[in-house]
Amino acid sequence: MAGLELLSDQGYRVDGRRAGELRKIQARMGVFAQADGSAYIEQGNTKALAVVYGPHEIRGSRSRALPDRALVNCQYSSATFSTAERKRRPHGDRKSCELGLQLRQTFEAAILTQLHPRSQIDIYVQVLQADGGTYAACVNAATLAVLDAGIPMRDFVCACSAGFVDGTALTDLSHVEEASGSPQLALALLPASGQIALLEMDARLHEDHLEQVLEAAAQAARGVHTLLDRVVRQHVREASILLGD
Amino acid sequence: MVPDSSVFDYFEILEMPELKGVIWLQTVTDALHSKRGWRYYNKLRSLLKDPSHECVLFANEYHVSCYHAREKQTLKKDWEKRIIYAAALWYYKHCGEKIPIIIVADEDSTKRYKVKSKGVYVMTFKEYLNKFYSDLEAAHNSCDFIDEALYEEKLESLEASGINYNKYLPPDILEAGLKSGRYVEGILYVNKHTKMEAFVRVQDTDQSEEDYEILIDGINPRNRALHGDRVAVKMFPESLWKRRMGADHEGYSEYVPTGHVVGITQKHKRDYIVTFPSKEDILYYSRKTKKYLAVPWDYRIPRIRISRKQAEKYQFCRAIIHIDSWDTDSRYPDGHVVGTLGTGGDLEGEMKSLLMEHDISERPFSEAQMGELPVNTAEKPWSVDHEEQDRKDLRKTHLVFTIDPKGCEDVDDALSVRTLSSGNLELGVHIADVTYFVKPKSHLDKEARARATTYYLPDRRYDMLPSVLSSNLCSLLRGVDRYAMSVIWELDMTTYEIKKVWYGRSIIHSTYQLSYEAAQELLDGNLSITGNIEEFQDMEEKEKEDRLQELTWAIEKLADIASHFRAQRGLDGALDLDGIEISVLLDEEKNILDLVPRQQRRIHRMVAECMILANHWVARKIYESFPRQALLRRHPPPRQNLFSELKQSAKAGGFHIDTSSNRALALSLDNAYDVSDPMVNKLLRNMATLAMSNALYFSTGSCREREFHHYGLGLDKYTHFTSPIRRYADIIVHRLLMAAIAEDKTKTELNLLSDRCLEELCDHINERHRAAKLCQRQATELFQCHFFRDKDADRDERCVADGIIYAFRDTAVQLYIPRYGIKGTANLKTKDGCVLHFGANGEKIGWVPGALWRSHKQADCVTSSGQGVTFRIFEHVTVKISVQAQQYHPNSLRLEILSKKPYLDPEARHTPKSSPSPTRELVEENSKENIPEEYRQFQQTKGESLYTLLEEMKNLAIQDISNNL
């Protein structure tokens, strides 16, 4: 790994963060009028939009309807201009499909689907700029959007990525850090209960270190939760002022 | 200590265990990382980890108060410097403002950030070592070594890369561009004072607009063009226009257009004089290319690369070099040696360089040219041909005499005046008839045309015509018959109104050959001078008296007429302008005795006025006859912005100068007279002269009539007619005049030049005249330098003189020294920020750190201890003159202000001193032996103090009366 020092002797990362620091998170809810719920989030340079429709009747073949709970339909796409190298098509490739599936799993775990049997909830997520941690950004955006749509959930779903460099766990990896090839882990957490909605890692990491990385990711996810909570409260306050007069 | 990114070169010294307490900034380590790679970076890391070094790394870019965003278009280097400085400042405050922080940086940033705030010091590595680790031998050694290696590397990189010029455009594109106006064409002039700046003077194609200049700023935009080349320039958009360098804030601050050279349309073909540096001088030597760099004599020419073989042969020589080529990737042009001029430094060699530099021919005349001369030997003397029928014979009828400087050999003008039977006066100006001997298209004619003028240097002369003609057959000597071209006016006896003019060839016989001094004495009525005039020596007393009376009457009458015409010209706006001229007194062995400013007397003006009159009338005649192909001389009005310095100086002195027209200028110059100091007026006049543009020869076909005007003389038409022996233009005018008065036009007009040819000829003559003028000036400067070179500036009284301040520069004053006629600058502030410091009695004590304020009126030197001194405009100071020796260029004079008081004469100062110290006596005795006899005499007669006293009394008297009135 010549050429880049991910973590300096003084404990700084390439972009000047400490190991456990998050990037700056800014979010807005209710960005689209025609959707039931929508949200926009920025995590550092990663930017994502989420739109939620439903719960509504099942569209398409009725056979897909589930008798006891709602169907969560997730679609992930990322804009052609979102990465350094221009993508050929925004969705439908394997990676998008996989991310869509992961999102679906995450939200099936979080949304109280049994309240809306035989209906469908659509979550569409689009990444506008990808600078590492796209999955986490998507989950966070989707959470806000679902909240905006007023769909009951067990809890916020807060996601964050974590990596492992030189015996230290780094949280909220940027693109540079992701590309370095070090082990990387994505965690979606229900912060109140501490339950894990999704945990995904696709590199080898010694078992001894897993605990440490997991703890760092969970800590970061809780950090994300407080931030998102603040966003939701701000949004509700604004909305109530608008409704109030 | 905070190192800058430039200290990586000294990294091995920093690794020494003795150096402690280094704060490494993140900015610096990042730069190290990106520039030097991992190996150095890892070294640094281990350095930081080693606790014995006591080093820390400060991540300054992540610190909120140390980070500055890099603005657009700032270089990374500048940004780094800024951020490092900010971090150092923060650190200083962080440590409770108790521990000083030192930034170690390279030289230019040291200059920039020096003394910006307290507690943070910027110095170079060398300085740092000297200050804190002066006993660390090893560090010093390696520092020196590294410095040297760095310097060499820098030179090599300068030589090899760094410079990459653009290719010139192909000729067809260039021509198309010039025609369409995309590019403009003009001649490139390099600024004499700063090599980086050059101008292209563009003559606008439609004549309605004035010429303008384009600034070529820097070496790259100049694109390998040399001084004097005719170049095509592409102008930059207006947003890139710049102010002129050196233009001060109050002066003309307008932006001038800038551009870059895209092609050279005509090379200025000439050879250059260079000096080769010594072998030890590695500065100019590049290992890669095996070439030496030679330094041209002219400051404006870049150094020239010469192959090593040749360079070693000509070490220390002044050599003539021809420039061969200049590649786009080479910083300097390539050249080769074509001849040598001997080693630099001696007078003869320097003179030769001067001649070469101005392309002045010192070849003798060839045999073919000499063969065309009439025979004039002792056995067979030349005499006038009495068969010449069409010449008017003035030998018997007219009293003709000549007035010239002492020892003048080429007498080309004679005067006559007499009363006609009708009572009217007849004034005659007779000019040597050179065209009789120099036939058009002969070899002599061609040679004369090439030389164009006679070159007068302080100790010698290069003739335009062979000496047989110039000092004998053409020269209007006393007591022999000579051919002449005459202009004779009939004047009304009282009003001096011109009634009739006659032009034509004549035979004259000059009776008296007077010197200016003798004529002036006669004019003043001092008849005792006659003893010195040869003509009167072997004459009877009675006859002598008659003749003398006749001559005196003639001179007085002439002076009267001349002043009348002068007054008339004055109404038309003629200016009275004198340049400062110096004559050099030489003894037989060509040693320089003294320098004296040339004096203008009434008799000079009288002769000049008669010549102006003749020139004017001839100009009228030839223009009348040949309106499209006459050679005239014009003097364009000066550009107003050139007057700004004159105006400012005059204003500061309390005068107002109106430059709106030549008449107004002449009037206001007359009014600007300070009774207590006559030099002021002289200086102002001199400054006005400097602002003038040059008078030019031109062909009437190439110019519109309203542009014929001669600004300085206030005449509508003017030409040169009166000195055919030493000016080629006059020969042409003579031929034109002959053609104009000839009855049979067809024969003579064949010899005339067409408008086009004449214009080309004019350009050539103008160019040669300029060269002659420049050469003369530089030769005079050379003599000045030689005069002062052998003198010990600290002891010799002659090196101390009175100077007058006439203008202020940024860090200096402009001085004029009337005693020697020298103008120059004297520093008030040195480059390292020291100013002149004077004691209570006005004597200079030395240089001390301080500041300098200046305005147009005065300059204040204030030392850091608070003592100040003020220089006002037109103030007299005492100046020391010394010579600044230069190896590659001509020597120059250096002026130094010694005292704020006016300089008193040595005699006046020494008298109160009763007993001079014995050492001083010894010195005086020694110096006396070296000084030639004549000089000592001269020094004794230098009793200036009494004269000035009388002058002052006289002025006081004038003042009193005017006050009473």
UniProtKB/TrEMBL annotation, chain A:
Its main location: cytoplasm. GO terms for biological process: defense response to virus; DNA deamination; histone mRNA catabolic process; maturation of 5.8S rRNA; nuclear mRNA surveillance; poly(A)-dependent snoRNA 3'-end processing; positive regulation of cell growth; rRNA catabolic process. It is found in: Cytoplasm; Nucleus, Nucleolus; Nucleus, Nucleoplasm. Residues 21-152, 155-219 form the Exoribonuclease phosphorolytic domain. Gene3D superfamilies: GHMP Kinase, N-terminal domain. The keyword Phosphoprotein applies. The keyword ATP-binding does not apply. Keywords: Acetylation, Cytoplasm, Exosome, Nucleus, Phosphoprotein, RNA-binding, rRNA processing. Component of the RNA exosome core complex (Exo-9), composed of EXOSC1, EXOSC2, EXOSC3, EXOSC4, EXOSC5, EXOSC6, EXOSC7, EXOSC8 and EXOSC9; within the complex interacts with EXOSC2, EXOSC7 and EXOSC9. The catalytically inactive RNA exosome core complex (Exo-9) associates with the catalytic subunit EXOSC10/RRP6. Exo-9 may associate with DIS3 to form the nucleolar exosome complex, or DIS3L to form the cytoplasmic exosome complex. PANTHER family: EXOSOME COMPLEX COMPONENT, EXOSOME COMPLEX COMPONENT RRP41. Belongs to the RNase PH family. This is Exosome complex component RRP41. The gene is EXOSC4.
